[in-house]
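Review form for a predicted model. The reviewer records the input and the model, then writes brief findings.
Reviewer: anonymous (R2)
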Amino acid sequence: MEHFSLYRKYRPTRFEDVIGQEHITRALKNQIISDKISHAYLFTGSRGIGKTSIARIFAKAVNCENNVNGSPCGNCPTCKRLESENDINIIEIDAASNNRVDDVRDLREKVKFMPAGAKYKVYIIDEVHMLTDSAFNALLKTLEEPPQHIIFILATTEVHKLPQTILSRCTRFDFRLVSTETLTKHLEDIFEREGIKYESDALSAIAIAGEGSVRDTLSIADCVLAYCDGVVTSESVRKVLGTTDTKLLLDFTQSLKEKDVGKVLTLINDIDKSGKNLSVFVKDMAKHVRNLLICSSCADASSILAETEEDFKKLKEQSESFEMSELINMLQVFGGAENELRYTLSPRILLETLALSIISGDSQVKKNLI
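Model under review:
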């Protein structure tokens, strides 16, 4: 049997299946129900949050013979025909590889042809910001006054690169990053349907690593499933992601607070000997200190931080032992040195120097390093 990755298998086929973009799906469904369809749309937002998926659903919905509250029914002859990736009424174009003016001129010629057995022909142009200036100019007139049977959907992760002339001719929808809670619930639903055993904290860790992207979250879940044997655990997620154990972060931070040079150097030695990427450790430390800063300064820290109840309790407890100035100083050091660690010939020595500069409070050393 052919294997499909989770993000392909669970790609939404109806507006109701899309998570985290209710403000967009509701508006599009209302347009379809009221038959007030725009001729050009602009979908903008980060990667993997549903731009292309919603574009495909919309393309089917506007052509569906019996749409259900604005969503494609999936059963009518038109819906079944449009499910084929080769259907000529839904044309997906990758602007990264079709960005020349000749490509757009070819598109302008093709839009003159009527759809085959459908109401609309929908052009989905992905990564539209990759078009050249001359290609944008060639597209402009067609985008402004397309034939009645044509709908353009432009998708991009970098909307600031689009000319104002293009922006002004599109109905714009800004996609949001999906919350960790929503991603965790999505993973729970998928794992239950797949019959996969899991620890709740493990799914939270996967969702946090996804950083708001549904596709990235499910891709990480695929990697974890390939590694695990039986139950998906927090430990297995950490090993796959290469992230640092919370206890190690707490111990390292506490050693800095207590100015225990011996323990700090010993911990760095242990981290290095274990084969862990020191750049990842510095990134994790910057995030850990940032979490401590939120715990010490925000009344609703638990709602801001996507942490388990046990880990949040430990963070809160450790944050109470630090002055805010200490945390800000540590955040500047670890946050500023992350890029340097990627290129240094001796990451261990650089990490040791960073840690010792925090302990000694030598601002000049930190300034030279960053």
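Findings: The longest strand covers residues 150-156.
Further findings: The radius of gyration is 25 Å.
Recommendation: see findings above.
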